[in-house]
């Protein structure tokens, strides 16, 4: 797969959230972290595909075409094989999220508890337009300021405290629609 074909296959990464993430760059630290993970799989480097993609997303916010090429080169596999993994797992992002990425559970218990209403309210409060999102390739919608982004998620394994959501790595339970403002305030420094 040529570089231009790979670029065409990856969703456009630029969003208002891009300013919060460094552009992909191969540093000595990144190489060392990747090599350490690869060393866990002496029988098959390919098994390190998921760990390397997690490392990339942790450092750069999302999986870009150049990062796919780098992972493929590290593992001596074709970039298309890495792209297949990226597109298969919903947890891998192909565009920059906001500084605070909110994943709202939409599975049965949370849906019945009001997660769709919660999503609508979060979008209303942050100015997020989800009309172009919600497909497999564009699940993320970012606020105009880039500070917040939203995405529906499947069951987050806390059905008894629905509706629930994740903000980056923070888990929030019982987030009824009336608590949307309170939730966002936790991530908005007071003037
Ligand atoms: S249905 Fe939402 S956590 Fe299980």
Protein described:
With 191 residues, the protein is an alpha+beta fold. The protein folds into two domains: 86 residues, no CATH class; 85 residues, 3-Layer(aba) Sandwich (Glutaredoxin). The protein has a five-stranded mixed beta sheet with strand order 2-3-1-4-5, covered by helices on one side. α2 packs antiparallel against α3, α3 packs antiparallel against α4 and α4 crosses α5. It starts with a helix and ends in a 6-residue tail after the last helix. The mean pLDDT is 91. The chain binds FE2/S2 (inorganic) cluster (FES). FE2/S2 (inorganic) cluster binds next to α6.
Summed up, the domain count is 2
- Portion of residues in beta strands equals 5-15%
Mean pLDDT: 91
Query: How many helices?
Result: 8
Topology:
Blueprint: H1 3-9, H2 28-38, H3 49-60, H4 65-75, H5 79-88, E1 100-105, H6 108-113, H7 115-126, E2 141-142, E3 148-153, E4 165-167, E5 170-172, H8 180-185
Parallel strand pairs: 1-3
Antiparallel strand pairs: 1-4, 2-3, 4-5
Helix pairs in contact: 2-3, 3-4, 4-5
Put the structure in a nutshell.
This protein has 191 residues and is an alpha+beta fold. Helix content is 39%, strand content 10%.
Entry keywords:
single chain; 191 residues; alpha+beta; Glutaredoxin; five-stranded mixed sheet; 5 strands; binds FE2/S2 (inorganic) cluster
